């Protein structure tokens, strides 16, 4: 009996050790909020977009709020899907070169050069596709918000830089086909040099851009030329039926692209207000994305 | 050098000639007077439906399908001749030129190959030609 108990205890310790994993990250504390569901504080990390949790105390809240915007060393233990803070402190002078390290992806950084992650195989892309959150109810959400959360998840959970693939339908198509959309968007990843679209709502696997276009144009005979600038679409509404445009993952909607091309407003960072709104694309967003909250009312984009 | 410049000009001109504006045929009705078998006749043309051809010509231009209703209405009391004709035709702006298909901005041909249609730069009908009453009738607007 005693032996049995010892064996159970040993197995439990081994299990916990395997299940829990300790690590350290240098990051910028971007936001701190109090959980509405549990007695925890949620720290949104700028370097990786992850939410780190700690037990809620008034001193802890005061300490963490004072760290907002500061570069910190954060030690944590991961148990399952959650990361719990073991220790968090500001970095000592000279400990980290904040000029060269990119520690806050919620802030514009003119030195940041976006490069899409290159996946090595279709198997990797297929596995990635299965991680996309999908509650199967496309009527409750808009494509650009779903795409934004999928891109954010790929980046924050798997460190994958995706892009956004837009199809723009021209006035010619919308008017004559009596079509209700003027654009559609989904994230895309690069697999051995080829763009593969990860449309978790309408597709069952990663698709080439051409195959994805064919589905949405309801024809294999129509090409949606790839354009670099929004005005190539805006100024040519009758020559073609559609256009395709690819942008970095941070671009939420066509308005962002228009601002880039007409006002030179580059977007190389996540915007927490946008994520707070976009997360509502999924039914259980308050469980999954509790940490993506500014603490202020949600702005609808 | 001069030959190179000339070649570049010719090539660029050829490339732009295969890109069309995609002028939309305007829907609506028009009427005009024509003489058919010597009878003054009212020619009414109604552009009913305009749809995209979900296909491209050999140069990547999409095309249009246009559904047209034509009526001819005339009477010569003296010679006791009545002109009454009604045709429904579908037109396309895809033309077969050799072994290529070419979309044209301002010209259309009926699917039966027997009638042609021209439009103006603003999409309004300019002229329609079709066989009727044993002759080629041309209605100009």
Question: How would you classify the helix and strand content of chain A by structural class?
Answer: alpha+beta
Overall shape of chain A: it is globular
* Most strands sheet of chain A: 7 strands, mixed
Question: Any idea what the shape of chain B is?
Answer: elongated
Question: Explain this structure to me?
Answer:
The complex is a heterodimer of chains A (301) and B (141). In chain A, β11 (226-227), α7 (230-234) and β12 form a beta-alpha-beta unit. Chain A is α+β, with helices and mostly antiparallel strands and 301 residues long. The relative contact order of chain A is 0.13. The longest helix of chain A has 18 residues, at 2-19. Chain A contains ten helices and twelve strands. Chain A has two domains: 2-90, OB fold (Dihydrolipoamide Acetyltransferase, E2P), CATH 2.40.50; 118-288, C8orf32 fold (Roll). Chain A has helices at 2-19, 58-66, 122-130, 143-158, 171-176, 209-217, 230-234, 254-263, 272-278, 285-288; strands at residues 20-34, 40-45, 51-55, 71-79, 82-90, 118-119, 163-169, 183-191, 194-197, 207-208, 226-227, 242-248. In chain A, strands 6, 7, 8, 9, 10, 11 and 12 form a seven-stranded mixed β-sheet that branches. A five-stranded mixed barrel of chain A has the order 1-2-3-5-4. With 141 residues, chain B is mainly β. In chain B, a hairpin with a 5-residue loop joins β2 and β3. Chains A and B meet through α5 of A and β2 of B.
């Amino acid at each position: 009996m005693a032996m049995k108990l010892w064996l159970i205890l040993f197995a439990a310790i081994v299990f916990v050790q395997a299940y829990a994993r300790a690590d350290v990250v240098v990051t910028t504390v971007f936001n701190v909020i109090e959980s509405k569901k549990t007695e925890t504080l949620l720290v949104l990390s700028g370097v990786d977009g992850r939410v780190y949790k700690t037990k809620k105390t008034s001193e802890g809240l005061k300490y963490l709020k004072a760290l907002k915007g500061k570069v910190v060393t954060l030690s944590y233990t991961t148990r399952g899907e959650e990361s719990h803070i073991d220790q968090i402190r500001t970095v000592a002078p000279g400990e980290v070169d904040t000029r060269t390290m990119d520690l806050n992806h919620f802030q514009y950084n003119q030195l940041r050069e976006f490069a899409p992650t290159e996946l090595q195989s279709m198997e990797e892309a297929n596995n990635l596709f299965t991680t996309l959150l999908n509650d199967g109810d496309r009527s409750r959400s808009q494509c650009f918000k779903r795409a934004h959360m999928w891109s954010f998840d790929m980046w924050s959970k798997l460190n994958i830089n995706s892009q956004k693939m837009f199809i723009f339908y021209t006035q010619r198509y919308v008017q004559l086909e009596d079509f209700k959309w003027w654009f559609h968007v989904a994230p895309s990843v690069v697999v051995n040099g080829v763009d593969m679209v990860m449309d978790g709502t309408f597709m069952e696997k990663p698709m080439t851009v051409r195959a994805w276009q064919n589905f949405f144009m309801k024809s294999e005979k129509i090409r949606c030329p790839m354009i670099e600038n929004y005005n190539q679409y805006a100024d040519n509404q009758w020559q073609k039926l559609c256009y395709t445009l690819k942008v970095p993952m941070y671009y939420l909607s066509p308005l962002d692209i228009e601002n880039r091309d007409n006002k030179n407003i580059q977007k190389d960072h996540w915007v927490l207000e946008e994520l707070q709104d976009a997360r509502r694309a999924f039914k259980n967003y308050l469980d999954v994305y509790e940490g993506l909250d500014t603490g202020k009312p949600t702005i609808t984009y | 050098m001069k030959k190179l410049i000339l070649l570049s000009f010719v090539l660029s001109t050829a490339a732009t000639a295969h890109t069309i504006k995609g002028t939309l045929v305007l829907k609506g009705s028009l009427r005009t007077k024509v003489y058919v078998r010597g009878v003054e006749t009212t020619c009414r043309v109604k552009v009913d439906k305009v749809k995209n051809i979900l296909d491209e010509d050999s140069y990547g231009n999409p095309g249009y399908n246009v559904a047209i209703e034509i009526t001819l209405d005339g009477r010569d009391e003296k010679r006791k001749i009545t002109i009454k004709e009604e045709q429904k035709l579908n037109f396309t702006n895809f033309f077969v030129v050799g072994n290529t298909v070419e979309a044209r901005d301002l010209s259309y041909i009926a699917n039966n190959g027997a009638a042609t249609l021209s439009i103006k730069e603003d999409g309004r009908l300019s002229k329609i030609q079709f066989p009727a009453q044993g002759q080629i009738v041309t209605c100009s607007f």
